[in-house]
Amino acid sequence: MIIINTGNGKGKTTAAIGQIIRSLGQGFKVCLIQLFKGEKFYGEQKILAQLSNLDFFAFAKEHPCCVKNISFEKAVEECCLAMDKLKEIVSSTNRYDLIVLEEFNIALRDKFIDEGGFIALVKCLSQRSNVIVTGRSAPQSLIKIANLVTEMKEIKHPYNEGIQAQKGIEY
Which parts of the chain register pLDDT below 50? Predict the structure, then answer.
């Protein structure tokens, strides 16, 4: 099954993490690959890295729009490493029951990875595993092949009222 969590609202990662916990609770083998989230900064990373039956990888830990000294080329290079990891998983005899591809929609939107190549990998992965892809702006080509698409829609957010991100809520 291919599952997409997208939209401009909060909750895409939270929903995927909930699915990871549910899968681990059933004894499943899980792989989480995150983009654009600095390692050991986000609260979920600190917990997930300690869990057995979960392989956790982080690539392109900073996005050029958020960190000024990161170039587009550097982001592309690091996202390509994440794509290499996906290719390795596809060709491996090891099998995951669930693969979560965190913020890959952003990498697609910003042209850090090739959309056609990514779609082909997701299709291959979904033949052996359930796959969740998160991030704003999921492309229509990915939505088209998905079995389940959820759009998180922002109604109101404290950031728009000048309230900064809260530890334990946003990170």
Answer: none
